[in-house]
Amino acid sequence: MPSGPNLFDDEDGREPDHRASFSESDRAHEPSAPTHSSNRRSPNYLIRRAVVVGGVVAVLATASIVVGRLMGSDDVDTGSGAVGADWNRLVLVDDRTGRVIVDDPEGEEISRIESGVRTPNASAIVDSALIVANDDVVAVVDVGNETVDEYDLGAQDIVNPAGSALVMIAPRPDGVRAVLVHGPSGDRIDTDSFAPVVGARYDFAASRSSTSGRDVLVTDAGNFQSVLFSFDRDEPSFFPGLALAVNTDLVITAQNVGNNATVSVFDHDGEQIATGRTPSVRAGMIADSGIVLVTVEGDLIVMSASDGEVSEAGRADIGTVESGDVTTSGERLVVTGASGTAIVDTSAEVVTTLDEQRPTDSGRAPSGSTCMSAVTTGGGEPRVSLVDLTDGTVVVEAAGGEPVFTDASGCTATTSTADGFDVIDADGVQQNRMGDTALAVSLDGISVAAERSTRVILLDVGGTDDAEQEPVDLGPRGRTVHFTQS
């Protein structure tokens, strides 16, 4: 059990009104108002959130990409693997003690929870389910009822499988074991007890999921097979080949031999439905048109899920294909190659090609419900782009680099600059030149958590005409910040 803060820990040292506590020199450099390309009025927090969330839902409904949250029955699939835009809690994890502090949107403290994880490597949250991990232990915290469950494995990172942002995975670095947590339900799977496989070496970073997050398909490189972990089944299912795609009914795997591949379609019980022969494949997506496949050379192929018949559909000119991930809508495949990135739709047509660009946080599946962020890979000034996944248009492009933090839609992001950060969205670029370090963007894109001097603060980036507005103080620096609906 971690000890409490020492005498020099100012973790509790807030101003009574929760305004940031800065020195006079800090205040002298505080900007009177943010610079933005558009004029926006300064709305009330609660009213503004209601209006923005309603507007986001309407826009996404029009685009037929619904930002859904899985709630209630475990058997319900919302059709979207994205998290919702609404939030009512800030969850802060102390980088030294692992202590969890839960605040409301105005920075008022609601609770403190001892996670039992000293100096955590990583943390992530979906709804009330929080994972905190270090080299020795993984703790799953319910921030609603303040319970903590510990697992005796270490993890250096927490990943989301391609296809759903609703499930979190804390894997052991050697791939032998992991804890999977389904955020909306709080359900957990410890692979050590659920699927004890001798010689297993799971590649959780390249796992695939149904949009609901209830079914996760993982390649077991140690045994040349794929394993289906389902929160709705009592035991795993095993399949030959590499994990390629999964939905609520089907599992797709590929066995690459030389320049050729055998692509197989199974049901969740392991019964083979169809098989087809193609050139070696690197990515796949289950669609109404069939199984959309992308070969190593970038050729697009559609394979029938019922009889394995294959037909050519086009080509993605992005060089040798390295990886491909299904988005949380289940309707787009983001394919990264040696010379760029392509977005492919369910008809196996290229929506757009991004030359010399790759998704941010390379190696992670895109989690935005509507947009994805990409960074330049060639020479010259680094730039960040937000790209609409529906039609491939560039929503905004700005100078800057990683780390990039986005809201739930992916259409509002922060990008790091030499003297602070920029907030970019469809309205343009809002500059922060205070030397602040962005830590997280709220799910609705209205607020940014940042580190300024010795404090963590919450900034309103929705636009303001109030020159006297001050940031909300969230405590001393050294905290990881998450936004959630609990």
Which descriptors would you attach to this protein?
486 residues; 6% helix; 4-stranded antiparallel sheet; 3 helices; mainly beta; 39 strands; disordered N terminus
Low-confidence stretches: 1-10, 12-78
Number of helices: 3
Question: What is the CA-based Rg, rounded?
Answer: 23 Å
Strand content: 35-45%
Structural class: mainly beta
Distance between the termini: 26 Å
Outline the structure in words:
With 486 residues, the protein is mainly beta. Helices cover 6% and strands 45% of the residues. The chain is built from 3 helices and 39 strands. The strands form 10 sheets. Strands 3-2-1-39 form a 4-stranded antiparallel beta sheet, with no helix packed on it. A 4-stranded antiparallel beta sheet has the order 4-5-6-7, with no helix packed on it. It has a 4-stranded antiparallel beta sheet with strand order 11-12-13-14, with no helix packed on it. The longest helix is centred in the N-terminal third of the chain and has 18 residues. It is globular. The N terminus is likely disordered.
Q: Summarize this, please?
A:
The chain is 6% helix and 45% strand.
Give the topology, please.
Blueprint: H1 24-28, H2 45-62, E1 89-94, E2 99-103, E3 109-114, E4 122-126, E5 129-133, E6 138-142, E7 147-151, E8 167-171, E9 178-182, E10 187-190, H3 191-194, E11 208-209, E12 215-220, E13 225-230, E14 237-240, E15 242-246, E16 250-257, E17 260-267, E18 272-279, E19 281-287, E20 290-295, E21 299-303, E22 310-315, E23 321-326, E24 332-337, E25 340-345, E26 350-355, E27 357-359, E28 371-376, E29 383-388, E30 394-399, E31 401-406, E32 413-417, E33 420-425, E34 428-432, E35 437-441, E36 447-452, E37 455-460, E38 472-476, E39 479-484
Antiparallel strand pairs: 1-2, 1-39, 2-3, 4-5, 5-6, 6-7, 8-9, 9-10, 11-12, 12-13, 13-14, 15-16, 16-17, 17-18, 19-20, 20-21, 21-22, 23-24, 24-25, 25-26, 27-28, 28-29, 29-30, 31-32, 32-33, 33-34, 35-36, 36-37, 37-38
